[in-house]
Amino acid sequence: MNCLLKAYEYEAQRGVPMSRDELVVTHLPLVKFIVDRIASSLPPHLDRDDLRSAAVIGLISAAERFDPSRGVQFKTFAEQRIRGTIMDELRAQDWLTRSLRDKFKKLEKEFSQLEQRLGRNPSSDEVATAMGLELKDYFRLLEEIHLLSFVSLDDAWHDEDGAPFGLLDVLEDKGTESPQSQLIARQTVERLAEAIDSLPEKERIVITLYYYEELNLKEIGAVLDLTESRISQLHSQAIVRLRGKMKRVA
């Protein structure tokens, strides 16, 4: 298998287009990496085999739809398709309780209302007070919803008709997109970048290291000299803020 992968990589470096099967075979390690990374933040009872199957379907779909003439690397394109199919599988399994969803929505509402009233990012103390919670109970709530925060940013937007669309739809490179659709996608990505830039410093660093540098929570904790539990809280808080910011500009 290693010899085969090296041969395919050599052909790619020479500028020889890969077939669909070659793209799938060479990027199977990417499937394992993404599944393991997402699964590490999910309940242990979830079946990783189901997630791997969904991820492979996403990889095959990416290989079938990939157009190298559009100047996008296949790895970048495939990552979005793979993550999207995994998120679809998680939603289909409906492993999130109604109570957990309600807590997340309530927290998101408090953040959004406070930010609009204060004209800045509210602090943890301010949110806890607004919710009638002791700070320790507020932090416990952040840890409780952290599993939901890993799949929530993908549901942050709605189109002009109110229909939901996810991050995958924004970043996916569709050859059939109209100029208007491309403009909307570009504007949404720009708004997301602005929203991330407006986060408090530690939350911005956590989001950057997790989603762009692809570090896990433990590794981010080592970088910031914080516990993994605290990084989980910062991640949850950042996602709640981002969802509110993106909904207000959608």
UniProtKB/TrEMBL annotation:
<dbReference type="GO" id="GO:0006352">
    <property type="term" value="P:DNA-templated transcription initiation"/>
</dbReference>
<keyword id="KW-0804">Transcription</keyword>
<dbReference type="GO" id="GO:0000428">
    <property type="term" value="C:DNA-directed RNA polymerase complex"/>
</dbReference>
<keyword id="KW-0238">DNA-binding</keyword>
<dbReference type="GO" id="GO:0003899">
    <property type="term" value="F:DNA-directed RNA polymerase activity"/>
</dbReference>
<dbReference type="InterPro" id="IPR012845">
    <property type="entry name" value="RNA_pol_sigma_FliA_WhiG"/>
</dbReference>
<feature type="domain" description="RNA polymerase sigma-70">
    <location>
        <begin position="216"/>
        <end position="242"/>
    </location>
</feature>
<dbReference type="Pfam" id="PF04539">
    <property type="entry name" value="Sigma70_r3"/>
</dbReference>
<keyword id="KW-0805">Transcription regulation</keyword>
<dbReference type="InterPro" id="IPR014284">
    <property type="entry name" value="RNA_pol_sigma-70_dom"/>
</dbReference>
<dbReference type="InterPro" id="IPR007624">
    <property type="entry name" value="RNA_pol_sigma70_r3"/>
</dbReference>
<dbReference type="InterPro" id="IPR007627">
    <property type="entry name" value="RNA_pol_sigma70_r2"/>
</dbReference>
<dbReference type="InterPro" id="IPR013325">
    <property type="entry name" value="RNA_pol_sigma_r2"/>
</dbReference>
<keyword id="KW-0731">Sigma factor</keyword>
<dbReference type="InterPro" id="IPR007630">
    <property type="entry name" value="RNA_pol_sigma70_r4"/>
</dbReference>
<dbReference type="Pfam" id="PF04545">
    <property type="entry name" value="Sigma70_r4"/>
</dbReference>
<protein>
    <submittedName>
        <fullName>DNA-directed RNA polymerase sigma-70 factor</fullName>
    </submittedName>
</protein>
<keyword id="KW-0240">DNA-directed RNA polymerase</keyword>
<dbReference type="InterPro" id="IPR013324">
    <property type="entry name" value="RNA_pol_sigma_r3/r4-like"/>
</dbReference>
<dbReference type="GO" id="GO:0003677">
    <property type="term" value="F:DNA binding"/>
</dbReference>
<dbReference type="InterPro" id="IPR000943">
    <property type="entry name" value="RNA_pol_sigma70"/>
</dbReference>
<dbReference type="Pfam" id="PF04542">
    <property type="entry name" value="Sigma70_r2"/>
</dbReference>
<dbReference type="GO" id="GO:0016987">
    <property type="term" value="F:sigma factor activity"/>
</dbReference>
